[in-house]
Amino acid sequence: MQRSIPTHNPHRTMSTNSENGGTSRRRFLGALAAGAGAVSVGALSFSVPASAESEHVAPSVAMNPEDPDSWFAGIKGKHRAVFDIFTPQGVFPFLGPMTFLMTNESTGTPAKDCSVVTIIRHEAVPFALGNNLWKKYKLGEASKVTDPETKAPAVRNIFWQPKPGDFVLPGLGDAHVGINQLQAQGVMFFACGAALMSMSAGVAQQTHQDPKVVLKEFMTSVLPGVRVVPSGVWALGRAQEHGCAYCFGW
User: Fold this and answer.
1) Is residue 46, in this structure, part of any structural domain at all?
2) Which of 79, 102, 143, 229 has the most CB atoms within 10 Å of its CB?
3) Got the DSSP string for 92-133?
4) What are 22's strand-pairing partners?
5) pLDDT digits (tens, 9 = 90+) for 101-121
6) Is residue 3 part of a domain?
7) pLDDT value for 173
8) How many of the other CB atoms lie within 10 Å of CB of 149?
9) CB atoms < 10 A from the CB of 8, how many?
């Protein structure tokens, strides 16, 4: 299946925060929040079931176009890390945050005293979306994500409220790598707005829908507690400015 996704260098981050940059950022977030002007990019190849029905998914944390930097004020832990998740690779995308917390616990620092930021971007951005879109647009097939239960292309977000036995690791049993499980331990999650806009534009093109309608559908399907930022690399830069060590994800 052919996919055309904007290419990002996973190791590049944005480090400047000038007044002009802040104005541009507010404009970007304002447009994103209003569902205006989806980015015109090469389309992903998705097929839509003839009778797809969307289940209800709670909306994401409300965006604040005026001060998205304030979201990073909660980074105050003794040990700080930001995980860069940009491709779907089995259990590995969220294994890093879990391991960081688990091994800090074993060396004397509980999760409540750590700050962990996870950026979901690029080809991994479907992991920021609810099961309704995974089913409707066959995101598992498009992203080559296999459901560990059915062994078929996933029609659910396998990292949102995973089922017992989904992610079993030798010596650990069920690994707590679900986004909701990590959120319960204080992990902060951000999704790349540029990738969401790009993907929704591609879906709109492939399914002959209004890009604004599809963008709104994507935004309302963002998982609870996941904040949408201007771009993943923007968020990586902000997290590092707040003392988080960069950790390569997948």
Assistant:
1) no
2) 229
3) GGGHHHHHHHHHHHHTT--GGGEEEEEEE-GGGGGGGB-HHH
4) none
5) 999 999 999 999 999 999 999
6) no
7) 83
8) 14
9) 18
The residue type of 119 is I
- Domain containing residue 232: CATH number: 3.40.1260.10
Cα distances from 63 to residues 15, 17, 59, 76, 140, in angstroms, run: 22, 19, 11, 22, 27
Distances (CA, A) of 49 to 134, 135, 144, 196: 11, 8, 17, 21
Nearest to 161 by CA among 11, 58, 14: 58
DSSP 84: E
CA 145 to chain centre: 15
Q: Is residue 115 part of a domain?
A: yes
Other Cβ atoms closer than 10 A to 54? 14
If one counts the domains in the chain, the total is 1
Least confident range from 10-19, 37-46, 79-88: namely 37-46
Residue 52, classed as helix, strand or coil, is coil
Which residue, among 130, 196, 119, 189, has the nearest Cα to 158 in the 3D structure?
Answer: 130
In this predicted structure, the answer to whether residue 137 has a pLDDT above a threshold of 90 is: yes
Contact yes or no for 139/129 (Cβ under 8 A): yes
- Identify how many contiguous H helices and E strands the chain contains and give both numbers: 8, 7
Decide: 135 and 155 in contact? Cβ < 8 Å.
yes
Whole-angstrom Cα distance, residue 118 to residue 95?
11
- Domain of residue 197 covers 74-248
State both tokens at 127: 């992991």
Question: Would residue 80 count as lying in a domain?
Answer: yes
Read out DSSP for 213-230? HHHHHHHHTBPTTEEEES
Give me the mean pLDDT over the 34-42 stretch. Answer: 33
